[in-house]
Amino acid sequence: MTKLQIGSPSETIIDAHKYWNATGIFLEIGATYKFEVQGEQFWYDAKIRSDADGYTKPWLSWAEMFRRKPNENWFSLIGNIGQSGEQEFLIGKKLERYKASSSGEFFCYANDVPIMYFNNRGTLILTITRLS
Ligand SMILES: [Ca+2]
Predict the structure, then answer these.
(1) Rounded mean pLDDT of the chain?
(2) Which of 49, 91, 100, 113 is a good FRET partner for 43, with 20 to 30 A between their CA atoms?
(3) Domains delineated in the chain
(4) For the chain, what is the radius of gyration of the CA atoms?
(5) Beta-ladder partners of 124
(6) Which pLDDT tens digit goes with each residue over 16-35?
(7) Ligand 1 mean position to 72 CA, how many Å?
């Protein structure tokens, strides 16, 4: 597992198809991090193109409550420490400052209904920088 050095960015690939993307990056409690999907990068929910901020569609509003993060957009980039659902946080295209509330491996996913990952495709490159 990789521990980040302050000010030294690290890149990891996040696959929309994976329920959990294990990054191999270790986040440390109390440390602060910046997350950014740089430039124009897209992933796909069936034929819908989305960036890391995700998308909304009126005809899908009935299903929003079934998303892993019901209050965040479809295909928004979500981060987590470990694989329990309790510390999930929205990253989107950019999260300027996140203070880790525990230590553990950093995981990510595209926000979707749990049984609907089969039609997801595409990857984003996420850049992570430890700030302090
Ligand atoms: Ca899907």
Answers:
(1) 97
(2) 100
(3) 2-32+50-130 (2.60.120.430)
(4) 14
(5) 14
(6) 999 999 999 999 999 999 99
(7) 15
* E runs forming strands in the chain: 2-3, 10-15, 21-27, 32-36, 43-45, 48-50, 77-81, 89-90, 94-99, 104-110, 120-121, 123-130
At 59-82, the pLDDT tens digits run: 999 999 999 999 999 999 999 999
Rounded to the nearest whole angstrom, what is the distance from the C-alpha of residue 110 to the centroid of ligand 1? 9
Burial class from Cβ neighbours inside 10 Å (0-12, 13-18, 19+) for residue 132 reads exposed
- Residue 49: pLDDT band (50, 70, 90) is very high
- Count of other CB atoms within 10 angstroms of residue 58: 6
How many angstroms separate the alpha carbon of residue 119 from the centre of ligand 1? 5
* Beta bridge partner(s), residue 22: 107
3-state SS class at 63? helix
